[in-house]
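Sorry to interrupt, but I need a hand with the structure work. Could you add the entry underneath, on a fresh line?
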Amino acid sequence: MSRDRTSRRLPVIITLLVGLMLTIMPLPASAEPFRPNWLALLLIFWAMQLPRTWSVGSAWMVGIVLDVSYGTLLGQHALALAVIVFATVRFHLLMRVFPLLQLGATIFALLALYQFILFWINGVAGVSAPSINYWAPVITGTIVWPFLYIFLSGVRYRARSGA
């Protein structure tokens, strides 16, 4: 792998590792339902910015790692992440020109789709959870998105310019 490729992939890998740490970090029981879906948000951003490099396959691998770390049904998060990243890659050219408010509404829809897929898989498997565990991360993820988008845009710009 060339040095240029490595320098372009390193920020993505680091942000995904930080996202995994934020996702599995223990929180108090009262705050746990309100944890944003960090990996979903990060994968949406990177799939929107670099769709040929970070796409459905990378989302599937990250989802498998998330399934193993959570101890959930194997493939549950992988399928949900792959579906939302597929939708992001499919419409990435449109999403990149959206204003931040409209992009926030799109992120809300993608996160709702992610949680619905998890809800559906858990329903089929007979796993029950309070509905706040499914829908609170959609709200908090939508609130966090503009700040994460601005921060990651800066990271991507610095990585591209070599600064």
